[in-house]
Automatic annotation (TrEMBL):
Endpoints of the signal sequence: none
Keyword Ligase assigned: no
Name assigned to this protein: Hemoglobin
Organism: Methylocella tundrae
Record lineage: Bacteria, Pseudomonadati, Pseudomonadota, Alphaproteobacteria, Hyphomicrobiales
Record's keyword terms, sorted: Plasmid
rRNA-binding found in the keyword field: no
Alphabetized InterPro entries for the sequence: Globin-like_sf (IPR009050), Globin/Proto (IPR012292)
Amino acid sequence: MTETPNLEVEESINNLVREFYREARQDSLLGPIFNSAIEDWDVHLRIVADFWSKALLKTERYSGSPFPLHMKMPVELEHFERWLALFEETAKATLPAEYGAKAIAKARHMAESFKAGIFIFVDKNGRPARHPG
């Protein structure tokens, strides 16, 4: 199996990030969350591309943890479901298959980890919740 040159994959990662956020900003559920949370889109897109470059190619451009930032956002379970669906669709369309599969697996793991860290209570209907009750 021949590996895709990293430069090609880097460009695919940049396309993934641009396309995902282009769609997410216009999405009726995700748009308001992202548009109110992100002030400088150029900086944000670069940081997210660096994150995915580290996750997929083991580069060292990203350091930090995305969880604390997401913890502060007013997200609910349906936001994660929509984010993941849009991300998976975009990853399949923009990344080489091998890297798309890796990105989707990482995104699914992140979504589950974030939900476990954010929704630490159960509401009266038995659904995960941010607050008790």
